Amino acid sequence: MPALISIAIPIYNTARFLAAALDSLLAQDHPDWEGLLWDDGSTDGSAEIAADYARRDPRFHVLGGGCQNGNPYALANTLALARGDFVGVLDSDDVLEPNALSAMLHFMQENPGLGMAYSQHVEIDEAGDFLRLGTRCQMPYSSQKLLVDFMTYHFRLIRTNAYQAVGGYDPSVDESADYDLCLRLSERFDIGHLPQPLYRYRIRADSISHGSRLRQVRVTFDIAQRALQRRGLQSQYALSLGVRARHVLRPKQQDTDP
């Protein structure tokens, strides 16, 4: 019997992009999946779109109580209900390539010692047009390098028993729950990289504000610090917090006073 893959799709005000995300799941050449749709209190019609897809295809299941609790909470509670042998996440504004599930599943089955695998991804703009090949997944993977570079980005497929063994997503992590989960998985299981672009990651102007980005830097630093301690490496290594800066060139305001 083909392996069932559970895909969590947390949804919050992504009505403009949600149909494309769900259509990409419907287009998979591996048909044995369940799409777990968790609406996190959307106000833009996203919940209605999710419900419509669930009416059209029984593989979609609408979850959540319509209250906003944040992405980590949505992911933790969604995948707690997963029935599949493997779990993964599709962000509701992104797109899977048609062979994403089959390619990742084949890779995992060919490498039974892996607890998780991740693919390459490409970046697209809000209109869905290609921008560039993702840079993070071009970094060679190592468990230690993961402490400073989040290369295990998109798309990830995780064995359900491995996901459960590390406790799954931590709903208390306000930012970077994916990073926290990957670090914990890397401490218990082998991770493999399939260098094939299977995921389209949408770059949105409103996705992360400057304030959120700075907060995310602080949170990821704390997550890495905890990982360093779990690994018993705090006596050998120290993490320091660095924030990259870049120059920005803007036109000056012209003085219009007479």
Short description:
The protein has 258 residues and is α/β, with parallel strands linked by helices. It is built from 7 helices and 9 strands, in the order E-H-E-H-E-H-E-E-H-E-E-E-H-H-E-H.
What does it look like?
The structure is a single chain. The chain is an alpha/beta fold and 258 residues long. Helix content is 31%, strand content 22%. It contains seven helices and nine strands. Strands 1, 2, 3, 4, 5, 6, 7, 8 and 9 form a nine-stranded mixed β-sheet that branches. The longest helix has 21 residues, at 210-230. The model has no long low-confidence stretch (mean pLDDT 89).
Write the layout of secondary structure elements.
Layout: E1 5-11, H1 15-26, E2 33-39, H2 46-56, E3 60-63, H3 71-79, E4 86-89, E5 95-96, H4 100-110, E6 114-124, E7 130-133, E8 156-159, H5 160-165, H6 177-186, E9 190-202, H7 210-230
Parallel strand pairs: 1-2, 1-4, 2-3, 6-9
Antiparallel strand pairs: 4-8, 5-9, 6-7, 6-8
Helix pairs in contact: 1-2, 6-7
Low-confidence stretches: none
- What general outline do the C-alpha atoms trace? globular
Number of helices: 7
How many whole angstroms does the radius of gyration measure?
19 Å
Q: Beta-strand percentage?
A: 15-25%
Summary tags:
nine-stranded mixed beta sheet; alpha/beta; about 260 residues
